[in-house]
């Protein structure tokens, strides 16, 4: 595979749900791609569509109406038969969720679960699968991995369960790891351990990671590139330093201004006023317009497309490049 | 921010809580020391934060203050009076002055009551309003927390997480408390909503002179909102002091580890990993000596044997560590821990524009 061909490429992805109030598009026309060895972080507030989008990559959203293309090694996952998807899930594409309890079976030992996952995807004998299971548990830094093979999930702490889930996701040597808020439920100390672990594993295996989070601190530490989602759309996407050193979407700036300053010297925070729009009553024009302090007349009428501001840095805002526009004077 | 005055509103002395839990077999009883001999005070208008890993005893400490959990030992003095040595009715009157708000306001709000009823209830119960004055009081409280009068007729499920937290705060304010125990009040909220609630708590403190015990594991919010900070580990306070002392020059190895683990929103800004190994041990089997010794990079033989006492460490702090004076200085902020100049400009423009559009909105 040549390095320029993305490992996964998503084109025009739409994920809709029928609800009593009408059809909602939880993900609305999203494009992005991830290369081998790259970590793409997807950041946004709750309800912005991060989980639905990442689960839909594996066709794991029941009752969703999905359209667009999800090209994995150039082949459209949306066009594959169900059994082929079962092979890919947990095989070439691994998953880690926020709540380990939803993906670990409470009545089966950790070891049996990992062995089963390996044997489901590869024709290896029991002994070889067990050896591999111990090996991946050891990789995740779980103390005495052999003994832990015999533990049930409830016997482990939150951090250890998360490690066990990572071990399971890694057991089949995935090319892509999708991690949905893998550390949100953990203490900062354990979070730091898990993030270190993910970084190390990526460096050693060369796998790509799609990391979903709402924490800009985690993004800054982990990502190579960042996509910011708002109300079902990607509003900004950029290499991580470009995003933090020169954000080009007002929503991204709003997220930063809501956080206490890094050195702790701010007196008041500037929150983003209001709240996310109801997916059944999206504003016309730019979806961020009702909350945007930089909005101009055009924003209420026309939806801004996601366009290149600088090479590799895309923003969906009529006023990008922001600093140039805003300091040119004569607004509105 | 108002600076708190020196008088003491709340004084906690040697507070402990032991739970009796089932052991390996149901007939075996074991003692779990959730909170272990903690002491602190809170001045009027002051915010003291309690930080530490999950299970270290923060909520249990908070619940003892509001009377939801009975202490196993120790004293709670509120406005100079010992809460434990009082009659039930005296206690009820005192307890009203200490209120609690939770992480999940939804779980604590009766779904069948309207917001107006929910807010009026505590005031009626304590005789602070009658049926006739209740409506006005509800309107006033809704205004105070940034909700509108028309919200009074709606039910909790019609509100977002942030709005429900506002309802929880209005309910706590209804009985005119002087101290509010805030147990992870913003942990479940998105950053933008978190900022709205933090601003609300601070402005209420300024206007009403409230004191807060702010329980959180979000260090950046703690740094923003606190006057003083207490760090807990396995039921003990290991370091307590003014915010600046704790964040700029943490003395206790555990405080340092907590600060070092917090992610910073600037690529490359966090120090090379000083990640703390392992998990917090179970409070059923606390380690001997210094309870932090199995995870402490500076532990020596003495730490295994001797429990370190909280001792003054200069700049108003207390530290419980045998070695805090010998271990190398800790640099809390990496040099890169600031926004890039362009981002700083954009943030300033954003704040200015947000302030302008707010004043435009409130003037029409
Ligand atoms: N009613 C109870 N019976 C037995 N043990 C309890 C009880 N309540 C709390 N504990 C134990 O006491 C310890 C401290 O619990 P507490 O809820 O105060 O922790 P916390 O610091 O608030 O944690 P978190 O950050 O997860 O909220 C824990 O080990 C907990 O399991
Ligand atoms: N099964 C479903 N039926 C209808 N709406 C849904 C369903 N699942 C998610 N949604 C909606 O899709 C939007 C995005 O949700 P989600 O992806 O979970 O957000 P995030 O992960 O960013 O917090 C939300 O408005 C949510 O309410
Ligand atoms: S398009 Fe207009 S409303 Fe939307 S983010 Fe840009 S300036 Fe704000
Ligand atoms: S007393 Fe010893 S083990 Fe405890 S924190 Fe200090 S150096 Fe570490
Ligand atoms: Mg989600
Ligand atoms: Mg708690």
From TrEMBL, chain A:
GO terms for molecular function: ATP binding; ATP hydrolysis activity. Keywords: ATP-binding, Cell membrane, Membrane, Nucleotide-binding, Transport. GO terms for biological process: peptide transport; transmembrane transport. It is a peripheral membrane protein. NCBIfam families: oligo_HPY. This is ABC transporter ATP-binding protein. It is found in: Cell inner membrane. PROSITE patterns: ABC_TRANSPORTER_1 (PS00211), ABC_TRANSPORTER_2 (PS50893). It comes from Aminobacter anthyllidis. Its main location: membrane. Belongs to the ABC transporter superfamily. GO terms for cellular component: plasma membrane. Residues 10-256 form the ABC transporter domain. It comes from the Bacteria.
TrEMBL record, chain B:
GO terms for biological process: peptide transport; transmembrane transport. InterPro entries: AAA+_ATPase, ABC_transp_ATP-bind, ABC_transporter-like_ATP-bd, ABC_transporter-like_CS, Oligopep_ABC_C, P-loop_NTPase. It is a peripheral membrane protein. GO terms for molecular function: ATP binding; ATP hydrolysis activity. Residues 10-259 form the ABC transporter domain. GO terms for cellular component: plasma membrane. It comes from the Bacteria. It is found in: Cell inner membrane. Signal peptide: none annotated. The keyword Nucleotide-binding applies. Keywords: ATP-binding, Nucleotide-binding, Transport. Gene3D superfamilies: P-loop containing nucleotide triphosphate hydrolases (3.40.50.300). Pfam families: ABC_tran, oligo_HPY. NCBIfam families: oligo_HPY (TIGR01727), PRK11308.1 (NF008453). Belongs to the ABC transporter superfamily. This is Dipeptide ABC transporter ATP-binding protein.
